[in-house]
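Bug #77: duplicate submission created two jobs. Keeping one. Sequence:
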Amino acid sequence: MKKEELIQKILQTGSNLTDIEIPEELKRDHDIALTIAKTNGHFIYKVDESIIDKEIVLEALKSNSYASDKVPEFFFNDKDVAMLIVSKNGHLLWKMSDKLIDDIDVVREAVKNDPDAIRFASDRIKNDSEFMKEYEQIKQEIEKKGIEKAEKQKQEKLAKVEEYKNSEIWWNDSSIVNYEKLDEAITDDMITRIENKYNKKLPSKYVELLKQQNGGRLIKRYFLSDNDKVFVVDSILGIPSVESTKSSLEYETDDIRANIKEYELTAVDPDNIIVFGNDESGGHANYVFDYSELNEHGEPKIVYFDNEVDFKEIVTDSFDEFISNLKIREEAQLINPDVY
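Kept job's structure:
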């Protein structure tokens, strides 16, 4: 491949250069290396280290701050390179040479990004009373901005919660393919067919929900239990008019029941569960009606079942309580900041 062709290929490929192959004869070409650096600095490892100079390093860091992992170590003694690295990740001050951790400009830039980076500064700087006064001011300003940012985020979340306060639980973004949503409208005959097949009565609230929409992904998908456990429900399964291989209550229930029996799992009784929802694990765990765990109204309790590790956990006493307490991510985060 000619040099000009490779440069065009790099530019056309964009930032993900994983599959770009650099011929041996071009790995020492400065223009090729510079093009890669400007496109995505992480991939400068694809060229020969001997060709990497300061210009290439600086461009690589500008295009991708994580390129610092690919920068030859001798550049950690260069002040310009160090200033750029610590301005994007102050913690990386620890990688710099003894000379640079003793440079006030470099340390100042690092603590502006991450106040905790002060611990990597030289003893001389940490004992410099004038600089430490400046450091305290920088730290206080960052903390102030952090508080302001957190408050802004809180207000944005509260606004989002208010926006979705009275909305349905279903995901309504038309740009997202909703594989679990069944096109057919639910009918009493479809419900009866399922109840007869499994000899179990479906919770009335579940039936009511499917009459709004026959399954699908959820926008309100977070259930926070009384013990602060977070359950994420990706989708509620609908009911098909006839037996189908498409994701549905019937298909998932038959599949999980067969899986339990084949692998002799013991956490749940296969003949006493109906699968009604998926979590976000991609098939390893489900939400089920557990008819061996009935509530005071004779309806099944809601159970989280992980069929990969053969584990179950009671989520809540009823589907009504379960569905009524699902929250959008922002509301869940207001209650539990660890929700992602």
